[in-house]
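Appendix B, Record 12. Input sequence as logged:
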Amino acid sequence: MTVYLHIGSPKCGSTTIQSLLAANRAPLGEAGLHLHPDENFAHEVGHQFVRGWLSDAQRRDRTDEIRALSDEGMGDIVLSSETYMAIGAKRETLDTFLSLFGRREIRVLAVMRSPAALLESTWFQWMRTYRRFDKVRQTVAQAGFSFPRYLETGWFERIDRNWQTWAHHPRIARFTPILMDQGGRLDFARILDDFLDRRAMRLPAETAENESMNGVTFRLLKQYRQAPLESYESFVSQLDRRMSSLGYGRYRLFIDGVRARIHTHCRDLPLFAPFADSVPSYPSAAALPEETFEELLEISRELARTFAPKAPQAAEGSRTA
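Logged structural output:
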């Protein structure tokens, strides 16, 4: 029996992979591959091992369920969560996690993208979820959005160590690395079929709204992190949609010189070395003329007013006796 683990990294096609698995649950089952019925199960297992994000009771329940999957002869197991990559931060934690699968053969799929694109996309996700997660607010408060801070504090080095810990762990029978940004668009259905050694991806993933923010939206949102808004994430989505409708959807945050500096910094890291000379060129939100940005800022202010908390309506005229 085999356990197939897709471990991320975050912001590297994980949602697409998970949507494909969910859409093909039936053909996967026919091919002897077991998905847990709870779509959040794989993520919760990851959270269990990353800084104890679950309660003690939840940790016990999830650990017991993993062992049950391994003990009950349910065929091959497939688990996908981008949280798994971070388990590699501590070798002993990864040892404990992998021990839950007993004697099953363990095969791992890991996906990475170019370092500059990874940092951009991570920042975009943090800005989108800024109001929802304390950890995101803490990270933004500590390191902010100045890219040199991430070079100075070893952010990329930690990601490389996590990857290498997974890739060279003796319990892993096969480690399949996929590098994005190395050519054309990736076919994740084919990647999954090859990884699972089956032709089980018969249905496309559900078409979902693209959650990847653009650089213009990011620049504008920096004005609204503390602003009172009834639904911050709805405002983010509407603003991003508005910027895309105006033709700014392809604008990225970093200028090419910044991308090149990040890639040069990562040149000596085994994980990111293949990306050293592949710095794609995009229009940069940082290079927008100031008058253009002011016009877009005014559009964002108008939109923000529609999401501002509404003042209580004045009470109706007092009743007469």
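The CA atoms of residues 163 and 180 lie 15 Å apart.
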